[in-house]
Specification:
Layout: H1 2-14, H2 41-64, H3 78-129
Length: 133
């Protein structure tokens, strides 16, 4: 989670002119852009910026939730309760694994976008340094 927030913070600090990302498509380690990928890096930047507050808000709302009345039902048998606990533990594990996968993917995309933006700026700086006679 910290890696995701660190990557998005770095992206927000470095990408000063997001419009430079328009028409630039993601590349996989020097390969040509994927034919099925029709979203440019500007659209991805906008998506990544929109997702960050949702992740932050989601984490804050998890801490605000109180146990429901169903959890305090005293008539449940211990066998049923143990089975429910095992199910809850399995479901929680499944969802946490999914969240970890999503955050890893978002972190990777964010880092790739930031790297590509830095490359674009380097190209611009190199072309400005060349004499135009």
């Amino acid at each position: 989670m910290e890696q995701y927030f660190s990557a998005t913070q770095k992206m927000e600090q470095e990408v000063m002119f997001p419009s430079l990302l328009r028409g630039v498509f993601p590349q996989q380690d020097g390969a040509a852009p994927a034919a099925e990928s029709r979203t440019d890096l500007y659209e991805r930047y906008q998506l990544l910026k929109a997702i960050k507050p949702m992740v932050e808000k989601g984490l804050a709302s998890v801490g605000d939730q109180s146990p429901s009345d169903a959890d305090t039902d005293g008539d449940a048998s211990s066998e049923g309760s143990e089975a429910e606990d095992a199910q809850l533990e399995e479901r929680l594990s499944h969802h946490l694994n999914g969240l970890q996968e999503v955050l890893t993917h978002l972190t990777r995309d964010t880092n790739a976008l930031t790297r590509r933006y830095s490359q674009i700026l380097e190209q611009i700086n190199l072309s400005e340094g060349q004499p135009s006679w």
